[in-house]
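Table S2 (continued). Query chain:
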Amino acid sequence: MTPLLWHAENGVGRYGALTRLSWPGATYHTPLAYKNVKLPGTWQSVLAEEPANCWYNQKKQFQIIMADDPTSSNHLPPELIIDIFLRLPVKTLIRCTSVCKQWYVLIRNPNFSTSHFNSYNNNHNNQYILIGNTNICHVVCDKTFQLIHTVQAPFHLSPNRKYSLNFIGSSNGLLCLAPGLEYTLGNDVYIWNPSVRACKKLPVSRFSDHEFRGVVSRLGFAFHESSNDYKVVRLVYFSGSCSFPFVDVVPLVEIYSLRTDSWKVVSAEVPPVMIQSVATFNDGVFYWMGFKSVTDDPMENYILSYDLDDGRFREIEQPSVDFPFSLLAVKGSSSGSLYSVYSKFFGGQNDILVLWKMDEFNGGWMKAYTIQCNRGVWATLGFTTSGKFLFANLEKKLVSFDLETLETEVHDLGIALNRSAVDVNYMESLLFFDL
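Corresponding output:
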């Protein structure tokens, strides 16, 4: 086969749209006009072993490889195939990999995975609630709260274990999780894509040589846009004994980079705040709820933040709330706002949740919502992209609070909730499909 070079005008980049593609005897204008194209044979361009060679170079030329068999079914222009695939859901694309080797190579290409994620999520609602149990994860629609399907966990846990899955966080369809307790330094940590069943075990901690006795570990996971990399941050508290609650202990810090597949010890000044919550990632910054020893109160609540851009830890001033409200969580919403969630307990009857929203300009707090919880509060879960705040009541049932209508609704999913294994912003993607 001899490669033929076709001239492209007004091309907008790799996996981008074309307004004009011409070759001797025919002109391809738009994907919608493909049926008018006079194909001089069949196409096998993007379906080649190396898709990178099938796109125009700096001279805006495409390398089109013609098939020897003119009756081959690969008769669509490659850019049209790309355009169609970018519109398909992940589940359909996975099935398409079984059609032929060429489609298999294309769909598993990391560049296509990224392009599909950006394109599909800009045009579709691709957000779900992921609920983990011992060895099964349930995918639930974040609008109807109906079960869509289940996914087998990437490792097997004994159902007799007291603790099962522990979700650290998710980003772009990748879920960071650990079997067992998050705060145990010796536990393995994984990054998993449930959509494509691909899983990666992270290297052991740089602090793993320390004696595990009297050690508490806290984690956070997110995609760092500035470095185009996925990061896991770990704070490790060493007390030298099993005494709790590790007040006044300054943690050691390390950060994992997916790009380099390695941990790096971070030399940063960290306030002596003992973290007691799952990390929330919002606009490039991790947030944890914690406490530290002060003059009047040995366990006063604090909010600790870590900025991935400047590598600095900071203490965040809390809202002015009246006792006996207690800080339950710090959560980021899909709109980019940061909320602190406080509760006032009345023994499980008519408990109150108060959501305070941070002012993005001056860093102050404004009271945003007050939620009456007739059946108590067992766990706060977070905000969905559909505009709902989710929590679990004392019956371990999912409760949604609509931020517009201010109405609450209890959802009996028929699934046992595990407060450490619920992700309300899970989305499907092809990332990691090349593993």
